[in-house]
Amino acid sequence: RQPWPGLIEAYREYLPVSETTPVVTLLEGNTPLIPVPAIAQRIGRQVRVFVKYDGLNPTGSFKDRGMTMAITKAKEAGAKAVICASTGNTSAAAAAYAKRGGMSAFVLIPDGYVALGKLAQALVYGAEVLAIKGNFDQALEIVRDMAENYPITLVNSVNPYRLEGQKTAAFEIVDVLGDAPDWVCIPVGNAGNISAYWMGFCQYHQAGKCDRLPKMMGFQAAGAAPLVHGQPVPNPETIATAIRIGNPASWELAMAAQSASQGSFRAVTDAEILDAYRLLAASEGIFCEPASAASVAGLLQVKDQIPTGATVVCVLTGNGLKDPDTAIKHNQSQFKQGIPAELKAVAEAMGF
Ligand code: F0G
Description:
The protein has helices at about 5-10, 35-45, 65-75, 90-100, 115-125, 135-150, 160-165, 170-175, 190-205, 225-230, 250-260, 270-285, 290-300, 325-330, 345-350; strands at about 35, 50-55, 80-85, 105-110, 130, 155, 185, 215-220, 265-270, 310-315. α3 crosses α7 (about 160-165) and α9 packs across α11 (about 250-260). The protein is α/β, with parallel strands linked by helices and about 350 residues long.
């Protein structure tokens, strides 16, 4: 058995790299496609449901797929520094890959709205972290201007190499299932990932690797759902800070993916997100971050539309450990503190 070489080596023929491209990799990709029977059971008829657990990438999110490509191409072009705006995960991935490639990294984040684990990562990977008094959309505008006016490479998903890397998740799903699934449910923020998946399925279809093309179902948080409403949201709000975005950069690409695949965009409430988040962890043993659970929340919302016999893949974009605050804050009922250090007290607290 060959060891996994990282996604650029694994899918080299589908990616814009040459023999001399200096590949910067942490052996990302090859994440598991895990069956989730407890969720399938909730749909109430014969369906197969899997999660693509991309939280198992080297920095804990799907961003590593895009970042191995973006940083590799930046290095190839001789870049010395990269910059991004981020709700957290992009900043962690950009920092890790930039440093591995010998570059410096600057990240702009919305002050107070980045999960603790992500902030810790960006700092420890050695990025310069600039927390701005504004939201992600404002940060993105600034870094786009920065990259136009200063010698620094932008590694947000408006950098086309990001989507090139991220499309490999679709390849991996087809390689495991033997064909594309019928439905793909995916959380949507800046709308790059849904666009990348669609690109991946279409390319694999053209290459004869799959017969089907999936329906792309994009789920946004109800307080940050511009693609559902058809207009930007000036002050997006959601517990799922990763997708707290009001004006997605890949708006057109995502709309094209939705219409070509006969899919749709829908909103899930924070309560639905938290229910799915707990269900995944406490029924399936899979801990994802709140934004990721939007895909499963969405699936459960539209479950009556799923044809019997269908195969569904929900994308879990990030690891639950990214956001320990939300995990602890929303599971207090199981947390019994201050118990005396004696058998009787412990047994009592356990309900004996
Ligand atoms: N899930 C997670 C965990 C994310 O971090 C993001 C985006 C998304 C879903 C949405 O993906 O933007 O391609 O539609 N996070 C970006 C960031 C914005 O800065 O880390 P998208």
